[in-house]
Structures are given as structure tokens and as C-alpha cells.
Specification:
The complex is a heterodimer of chains A (about 220) and B (about 425). Chain A has about 220 residues and is α/β, with parallel strands linked by helices. Chain A has a single domain (about 5-220), classed as P-loop containing nucleotide triphosphate hydrolases (Rossmann fold). Chain A contains 7 helices and 10 strands. In chain A, the strands form 2 sheets. A 6-stranded mixed beta sheet of chain A has the order 6-7-8-3-9-10, with helices on both faces. In chain A, helix 3 (about 100-110) runs parallel beside helix 5, helix 4 packs across helix 5 and helix 5 packs parallel to helix 6. Chain A starts with a strand and ends with a strand. The model of chain A has no long low-confidence stretch (mean pLDDT about 90). Chain B has about 425 residues and is an alpha+beta fold. Chain B folds into 2 domains: about 1-50 and about 285-415, no CATH class; about 110-230, no CATH class. Helix content of chain B is about 55%, strand content about 15%. In chain B, strands 1, 2, 3, 4, 5, 6, 7, 8, 9, 10, 11, 12 and 13 form a 13-stranded mixed beta sheet that branches. In chain B, strand 9 and strand 10 (about 185-195) form a beta hairpin. Chain B is elongated and about 105 Å long. The chains are: A alpha/beta (about 220), B alpha+beta (about 425).
């Protein structure tokens, strides 16, 4: 078992008004799973993603990641967990615009305390795996959308995390680049990486081994509609 | 740390104009402080070395009557002067930081001093021993000095300095000529001059008189010949050469107390040896110039404060601009400490760089001032080190609030920030 959510509730305070976003979410993800979570906007899928990614904490309920209880951890402990266990891929890449692809990929290793020489070596390796060996010293502005997302994936995977969290990874890409990203995900999953992906595109969700739906803050499993 | 420096330098270089304008406040402040401090230091050193130390660091200890120099032209002693012999001279020479000691006779004025019909009334007459030239930093320029035999036997011979030559001999070679001192004939055997030349700073009336006093001519005769022209048993003036200008005051005080120990005048006469504490007078001049300059430094510090606020302002802007970057870094595992360190490093480099540029500008400014206003300038190394540290401290102080703000950003909000 990689992660387990037990009766997770999340309520935001909007002024004095309580806005419930997630209701009694129960989810178990085994190691090596490839899960797509689908839902319309406002369904609470981003909040769920943030909780799974240890960027946010639930209002109630328990979350165990690799057997560790996440509730009650300090900010810095959450940072360490994110750094070691989770790789993030965002819709809009979130690359540092003034840094080369290599420096971007090396960034998580900086926070893991890896020495610079080793950081750059491992980053170069990760980029080569993404087929970007010749683009290492390019800045993000010199790269296409698909290349940027592959840099972002290299960055997510450079620390060998157990979990890859992708938030609309193809949302900003043309369909050819999107397919390329999905091929990479398939390959990573085949190598044993657990992937959780949020999307609203059915074709993309169909690439995952398992699909779940979230609607009005409630998660339901099952078949594609 | 290395990564923080790399990122900071990159960030600063990517906004060159903005970084420069941010640094400008620091540059102006530091440059002003360096320029002012250098000027103060230069002026003080000049006062100290040229005016007070006269390049030779001599202290004169004279017999005073109730605080004023005893002058036997007008006054008489209430009793016999104790003999100040070679053993007393040795005692004084053994005082730490004393390099040489000389016993001389002299009078403030000598109104009967002629070469033919030409009066040298502005000149001062000294009855000297064999240590005087060495102690006072004088050397023979023409003719000869006094031999030990001359000094011991007290022959009627004299040495004149260059000023006296100009005022009394109208271009003639004085060697071999006869001077009339108090009606007694003295043959000039040599001309002396200072070993080192100097141009003192004249800022006040007091400086002017001090300077003019030194500029008046001098006539030297052997101490043993003094009674021929003046009188027996005239009190000695003690001239001491100190190791450095800074030692002059302490050496003077010590000599005073030793010499006063030999005085045997009845109590209550108020006649005592007193060192001419020029160093103390000078320190007052120095304090005066320093106090006006303290004001300037104060104004420069306000500029530094404004510069610091500028750094803080730009760092706050930078944090807002880079909210997404901060969010991303936190998502990737950057701890609060690391985010804080990055922004703090940037602030410190920004202000430290401003400080370094400020030092260069300040030194240039000081040199320009020294050339234009003819004020001596001494660049102070401690001031430079303090300036760099101070500007870096400004970076830390004014960079702290923005960097804490950055480190406390919530990664979700930061990532969502447009």
C-alpha cells in the first residue's frame, strides 16, 4: 500500500462561511498503480490532489503515505516528504524561466542536499531519459510545450519518487505532445512508478489503468461513463 | 549557499537597471562616509605629524611660573636652580619611548641681536648641548657644527638657521661673520636646517602663530657660552624626542614629574616644570574638525537608511513577482530556511555590492577633494572594512522581512498566484 485516505473531509473558511469541498473521501492506492481522477471544475479534484501531494492538510480524516501519518507534520517535515516521495507535474509546467533545463531538473536535488556535481549529473541523466539530451542548456523559453512538459517530468522523476502526481499534464499541450507525455507515463508506470493523474479529458484518463470520478466533493470508482 | 549566491547574482544581473537604482542609496551613503572619514583622517594625521610632531616628535619641557613660561628677561628666580647634570639627562633618556634628551637655555625674546647694524630681533637664541641637533631634527647645511671641545669650553661661536640667514645677512654667507649677542661678539661657524621639510595645515589663528613661531629664525650658541651673553644659573629647558607623535603627551608628563622632583624652591611659589602639551592642543583642533564631520557622517547614515529601505522595497517587489517560483520551490521540497536564505543572500549581495561600489566611489571622491580643496586624504582601512560589513548588515536587516514573508507563503496559494 502506497497511500491510504480515510474519511477525508476538507472545509475551507470563506470569511465566516464554511465551504465544504471534500466529503468522506476514502481511497487506497497500491504501489505501481496508474490512476486517473476525473471531474468537472469545482468538483474538488485540485483540493484532493493538494492533500495527496502533502501541499494541504485535511480538516478531518487520516492520510497515510508510505505508512506515515501525514496529519500533524510540520511544514518542514512536509517539505521533506514532498521532496523524497512525490514528483509533481503541473498543467503549465512551472519551470523557472531564467534557468536552463538542466538547472530546472536539478532543483529538487538541491533541496535534498545532493552536492552540485552529482545534482547536475543526475539531472542530465533524467533529461536524457526524456529524450532531451540535446536540450539541456536551453532555457524554457527556447523549448516547445511538449519539451517543457518533458523537462517538468524529468524534474519530477530526478529524485526517484515513489509517486508521480500530475495535474492536467496535457492541458496546455497539442494532442501529439499530449500523446508523447502519455507514452512517457506508461513507460514510467511500467518501471514501477505509481501515477495519480487529474484530468478532465476522457481520452487521457483512458490511458490510466484505473479511473475514478469526483463530483461535488465525493469520490466514486468504476467504469467510464 | 553556493546555489543561493549563483541564483542571486543571476537575479541581480537580469534586472541590471533596477539593481543599480536599488544600490544607489547604499552607494551614495557609503561613498559619503568613506570620503568624509578619509578627509578627517588625513587632516588629523597632518595636524598630528606636521604641526604637533613637527616631523620630529619633540616635546619641550619648560619652567613655568603659575602656568606661564618663566622668562628671565623680565623675571627673577626665587632661589637657586638645581643643577641638571648628565645623570638627570640619563634618567630622562631612560623613560620608555624617549629617544633623545637635550638640555638647552632659551629666551622668548632677545632684543639685542645684531649683525653689523642689522637687527635680528625676531630670532630666538638657544644655548645648546651636544644632543640638541639630534633631538630637534636639525643638521648642518654649511660650515661646521660645535665640537665637543667647543661645547665644553664655551667658546663665542654660533650657528644660525636658514631663516636667520635670510633675515639677518641679506644673502651674504654668514660663516666667519661676527654676530653681536647682548653686546658680546660671537663668530658664526655654520648654518643649519631641518632634516625634513613640511607644510603645516593652517586652519585657525592658533595654528598660524604656532607656525610663525617655528618660522622665526634661530641662533644657536654652546650652552656653556650662555652666561657670557645672558646670565649664570639660568634654568634649563628640556627638549625630548619621543618615539612617535602619540607618545608625546605621556613622555612629557613623565619628564615633568621627574624634573619637578629636583626643584627646591620654597612651597607656594608656583614655579614648576611643564611640558608644552601641543598634542593636547592639537587633539582639541582635531575634535573640532571631527565634530563638524560627525554631522556629515550622520547625514550619510540617513542616506544609508534610505538605501536600506530601497533594498527592502525592491526585495518585497521581488517576493511578489516570484510568488509562483516560491510556491514551486516549496512544492519541490524547499524548506522555509532555504527560501529565506535565498532572498536574504540576494539582499546581502545587493547591498554588499552597493557597499563595494560605494567604497570605490568614496575613494575617488576623497582623491578629488584632496586635489581640488588641497586637503590631505588618508584612506582608512578599518573604515572600508566597517563600510562593507555595515552595508551587508543593512542587507540582512532590510532583507529579513521580505525573506520571512517569502518563506511563509503557502505553496498552494503561491502556485495558483497569477
Amino acid at each position: 500500500m502506497l497511500l491510504e485516505l480515510e474519511n477525508i473531509n476538507k472545509t475551507y473558511m470563506n470569511g465566516k462561511l464554511e465551504v465544504p469541498v471534500l466529503f468522506d473521501i476514502n481511497l487506497q492506492v497500491e504501489k505501481g498503480e496508474y490512476l486517473a481522477i476525473m471531474g468537472p471544475s469545482g468538483s474538488g479534484k485540485s483540493t484532493l490532489m493538494n492533500i495527496i501531494g502533502c501541499l494541504d492538510v485535511p480538516t478531518s480524516g487520516n492520510y497515510y503515505l508510505e505508512g506515515t501519518k501525514i496529519a500533524g507534520k510540520s511544514d518542514d517535515e512536509l517539505c521533506r516528504i514532498r521532496n523524497k516521495t512525490i514528483g509533481f507535474v503541473f498543467q503549465n509546467f512551472n519551470l523557472m524561466p531564467r534557468e536552463s533545463a538542466l538547472e530546472n531538473v536539478a532543483l529538487p536535488l538541491l533541496y535534498a542536499g545532493v552536492p552540485r556535481k552529482e545534482r547536475l549529473e543526475r539531472a542530465a541523466e533524467a533529461l536524457e531519459k526524456m529524450g532531451l539530451g540535446d536540450r539541456m542548456n536551453h532555457n524554457p523559453t527556447q523549448l516547445s510545450g511538449g519539451q517543457k512538459q518533458r523537462v517538468a517530468i524529468a524534474r519530477a522523476m530526478v529524485g526517484n519518487p515513489a509517486l508521480l502526481l500530475a495535474d492536467e499534464p496535457t492541458g496546455a499541450l497539442d494532442s501529439a505532445s499530449g500523446r508523447q507525455v502519455m507514452e512517457i507515463f506508461d513507460r514510467l508506470n511500467a518501471e514501477g512508478v505509481t501515477i495519480i493523474m487529474i484530468t478532465h479529458e476522457k481520452e487521457i484518463a483512458a490511458c490510466a489503468k484505473k479511473q475514478m470520478f469526483i463530483r461535488d466533493g465525493r469520490l466514486s470508482g468504476g467504469e467510464m461513463e | 549557499m553556493g546555489e543561493n549566491i549563483r541564483l542571486s547574482v543571476k537575479g541581480i544581473l537580469s534586472h541590471k537597471l533596477r539593481s543599480f537604482l536599488t544600490m544607489l542609496g547604499i552607494i551614495v551613503g557609503i561613498a559619503a562616509i568613506i570620503a568624509v572619514v578619509s578627509t578627517i583622517k588625513g587632516t588629523n594625521e597632518q595636524i598630528k605629524n606636521n604641526l604637533i610632531g613637527d616631523g620630529t616628535n619633540t616635546v619641550t619641557v619648560t619652567l613655568n611660573n603659575n602656568g606661564y613660561p618663566m622668562d628671565l628677561q623680565y623675571e627673577t628666580l626665587p632661589g637657586a636652580m638645581p643643577a641638571l647634570d648628565e645623570s638627570v639627562r640619563q634618567e630622562l633618556a631612560a623613560v620608555p619611548k624617549v629617544e633623545n634628551v637635550s638640555f638647552i637655555h632659551t629666551r622668548e625674546y632677545c632684543d639685542s641681536l645684531f649683525y653689523r647694524n642689522n637687527s635680528l630681533s625676531g630670532c630666538r637664541v638657544y644655548g645648546i648641548d651636544g644632543h640638541y641637533f639630534e633631538t630637534a631634527g636639525l643638521q648642518i647645511m654649511a660650515g661646521s657644527g660645535f665640537s665637543e671641545k667647543d661645547l665644553a669650553e664655551g667658546r663665542n661661536i654660533a650657528i644660525v638657521d636658514e631663516t636667520a640667514v635670510n633675515s639677518g645677512f641679506a644673502g651674504e654667507n654668514p660663516v666667519g661673520k661676527t654676530l653681536d649677542i647682548q653686546g658680546e661678539p660671537f663668530t658664526v661657524v655654520g648654518v643649519c636646517g631641518k632634516k625634513s621639510q613640511f607644510e603645516p595645515v593652517i586652519e585657525t589663528e592658533q595654528d598660524y602663530y604656532m607656525y610663525m613661531d617655528m618660522r622665526s629664525g634661530s641662533v644657536y650658541i654652546p650652552s656653556a657660552s650662555w652666561p657670557v651673553a645672558f646670565q649664570y644659573d639660568e634654568p634649563y629647558t628640556v627638549v625630548i624626542k619621543a618615539a612617535s607623535t602619540d607618545d608625546m603627551t605621556t613622555v612629557g608628563r613623565k619628564a615633568e614629574s621627574i624634573l619637578n622632583g629636583y626643584l627646591t624652591f620654597p612651597a607656594g611659589t608656583g614655579i614648576q616644570y611643564k611640558s608644552n602639551d601641543l598634542a593636547e592642543a592639537a587633539s582639541q583642533i582635531q575634535q573640532l574638525s571631527a565634530s563638524t564631520n560627525t554631522l556629515l557622517i550622520g547625514i550619510a547614515c540617513i542616506s544609508l537608511l534610505v538605501g536600506g529601505i530601497g533594498v527592502m522595497n525592491i526585495m518585497l517587489v521581488s517576493v511578489t513577482e516570484r510568488t509562483r517560483e516560491i510556491g514551486l520551490k516549496k512544492a519541490l521540497g524547499a524548506k522555509k530556511r532555504q527560501i529565506r536564505g535565498q532572498f536574504l543572500t540576494e539582499a546581502v549581495i545587493l547591498s554588499g555590492l552597493g557597499g563595494v561600489i560605494g567604497i570605490v566611489v568614496g575613494i575617488v571622491l576623497a582623491k578629488v577633494v584632496s586635489v581640488v580643496a588641497l586637503i590631505p586624504v588618508a584612506i582608512s582601512t578599518p573604515a572600508i572594512i566597517i563600510a562593507v560589513l555595515f552595508s551587508m548588515a543593512i542587507g540582512i536587516i532590510f532583507g529579513l522581512a521580505p525573506s520571512i514573508q517569502a518563506s511563509n507563503l503557502n505553496p498552494i496559494d503561491a502556485l495558483r498566484y497569477e
